[in-house]
Write a structure and sequence with these properties.
alpha/beta, 8 strands, 36% helix, elongated
Length: 251
Amino acid sequence: FPRIVLAPRDISDCFEMTAQALDLAERYQVPVFVLADTLLLDNQAIIDPLNISRFPSRRYLLGDADLRQMHNYQRYKDTTTGISPLAAPGSSSHVVVVDSDEHDEDGHPTENADIVNRMVAKRNRKTKAVQNATLLTKPWVETLNTNAPLVVSWGSTYHTVQEARLRLDGHEGGFSHLHLRQLWPLDADKLKAIFKSHTSITVVENNPNGELAQLLSQTTLCCPDHLITRSDGRPMHVTELTERLQNEALS
């Protein structure tokens, strides 16, 4: 099923991404996951005041005027975008039917193969709508220099990788940095183009198995050349990461 996975990079990002997640969930009617790691969940930090005015505040529910014009309310109406009309429960006198099994546009359960195929196609069209969303066109932080090694990261490793990049900038061990803040859906074509413009790919993750590295391999068919992980539950220190990058990936 269509879904969105966001990964904040620091505590300030957690606030903004949670607001974005709520907006996206209602706008596209899909589950949205905010994937935070232990360092973010257990950490404390002093951050700049949050600019709440930048946070999304629009609601995507049908208004009274819309509902008055509707003869009947089809919660799962088949639309070109795959996004159906959404009304708050009890906001009108329309009959509302919701079902967790496969259903028709009115919400009634069905095993009709033609209807099932149409409803599956409707839900899948949401994926394209999500990929084209203005909010998600730039889900990563880019510090890219072509014809150089590329380091890819996500989550709380962001600042550590950035500091390591600054320490090595201008030296033989310099690299580009791509930090993903949206882990799904991924723009495979854009990622492929970025990967092909660099001499090697190194993924830095604070987990034992390289979960992002596996996902990138599956979606782009470009296997990372190096994987730097840590599995003892402690954050990566910039000195450790700098040394490991020089010894394992940039040498």
